[in-house]
Amino acid sequence: MTQPLEVKTWNAEQQKQYLALGYWHRLSLSTELTNWCKQYANNTAIITGDKKITYQALNQQVELLAAGFYQLGVKPKDRVLLQLPNCIGFITSLFALLRLGALPILAMPSQRQQDIHALCELAEPTLYIVPNKFLGTDYQPLVDNITSSFPAIQVIHIDTEQDPEIALASYHSSQPYEVTEAYYLDPAILLLSGGTTGTPKLIPRTHADYCYNARTMAEICQIDGNSVYLNVLPIAHNFSLSCPGLLGVLSKGGSIVLSKTTSFDEAFTLIEQHKVTITAVVPPLAQLWANAREWDDTDISSLQLIQVGGSRLEASIARQIKQAMQCQLQQVFGTAEGLICCTRLDDSDEVIFNTQGRPISPHDQVLIVDEHDQPVVAGATGEMITKGPYTIHGYYRAAEHNKTSFTKDNFYRMGDLVRLTPEGNVIVEGRIKEQINRAGEKIAAAEIEQKLIDHSQIESCAVVAVKDSRLGERTCAFIITDNKQITLTDIRDFLKQQGIALYKLPDQLEHIASWPLTSVGKIDKRRLSIIGEQQMKINQ
Ligand code: J2J
Fold this sequence. Notes:
By secondary structure, the chain is of the alpha/beta class. Among the domains are: 54-183, 3-Layer(aba) Sandwich (Rossmann fold); 441-539, GMP Synthetase, Chain A, domain 3. It has 17 helices and 26 strands. Helix 2 runs antiparallel to helix 3 (55-72). The longest helix has 18 residues, at 55-72. The radius of gyration is 23 Å and the shape is globular. The termini are far apart. Bound molecules: ligand J2J. Residues 194, 238-239, 243, 309-312, 331-336, 340, 356, 414, 416, 428, 431, 437, 442 line the site of ligand J2J. Ligand J2J is lined by residues 194, 238-239, 243, 309-312, 331-336, 340, 356, 414, 416, 428, 431, 437, 442.
């Protein structure tokens, strides 16, 4: 028997309050989408390649696909694993699944067997929607592996090179189907958490809270029917899906331009061609783009706002980005679990360059606490904990993990060390969670450690983040072994064979004779990060 879908949610009083304030609508995300398609029928919704798809046409494609998925047997509350890159098929599949009341699990195209396998075990999807090939990766071996372990799963292959107007057309159906209006406080989608453990965690975002998140960000970014948003980051990520991203932009009648890659060649050309007004990137990418502006003369003057978030942005680089891109900059400090902080368009440069802004909802509660969960004195650094109208109360099917990730009164522990300025802006100072933030992509140290320790010649290991001028942070594995010949390539190959995604493979390997320990006898990972940085300098 499958486990129930129910997840812990807001108490009755909070629910009443958020509904009364108009934050939440008593509507499913699917009904919101249908309403936007009707309201902005003739506006351009999606631009991909040389095709422009209106809201009306998008809605028609979604109708046909929902009917097709229905014929395949997709039912309300079925989990469906969606692992697609930035393509029209992602958008139509997502919306069609929502229309049937199914629950999409949003996996990243970069994930491999280890993650996809774990997601299938955790959420028991009935359908897996995956590209056949994308940017040189053939997904067939991954699909073969998954179907051999989970023979009941149906697979839909998407040809991402196909004409967007007929993408998925072979799955279209004109048969009638049953639209299911989901309850607005049921989970609408399962997002992937950055995670700190060996197995992936899924974030159940509800219809009401996710829509509120997207609309609020759209309002802060002043999105309207003339806005053109360039989607360069993976569309399945919370930043590009709802901050304001795809959903926020569609809620206001704007257009989404899909970019396949993050390269400035493609991005700048799309900005010029479609008069893009807003885009969202991670700091290392923003810096690459800013450097490229020194010699690139593509006309990107339509750009009004560049959102930068996902990892730490140094003030000096923030300044350089604003100058090079000749538009407003917005720092975004957010999490797929909920809370989003950002600078506002009319903030001073001082605030925009030096802080990560403030929460987007007046009802976001943010506390900065010490190791005993006691609030620190004003202005001091501590761990950020939060709850509010769009922050989850628990991960999907993770009762044990939820006990440590949330406080007794339902605050989510962000795992970030921050301080607040007197004006209430957040400054991110560091992190207590054991995670590597590699150019915005999050890697749980525990996951890599658990795999490395299976290596017959590794006695003990620890994985830490080491400062990196290009990536922000790189992944450094420390090992204790008698075999001093083991190289970085050896351990990367070893991990690759275990189905670990490429972006999670260590960038650096250090042999160590014994562990530096903290006063309580744990491996001193802070010390290891420093050693890793020193070693890298010596080796350069
Ligand atoms: C430092 N660390 C940051 C920042 C996130 C918008 C933007 C980002 C995310 C995201 C997101 C940071 N400076 N500006 O979902 O909608 C680190 C923190 C945080 C973790 C969350 C969005 N912005 N971080 O990055 O769920 O450590 O969401 O807790 O992937 O990224 O990661 P994620």
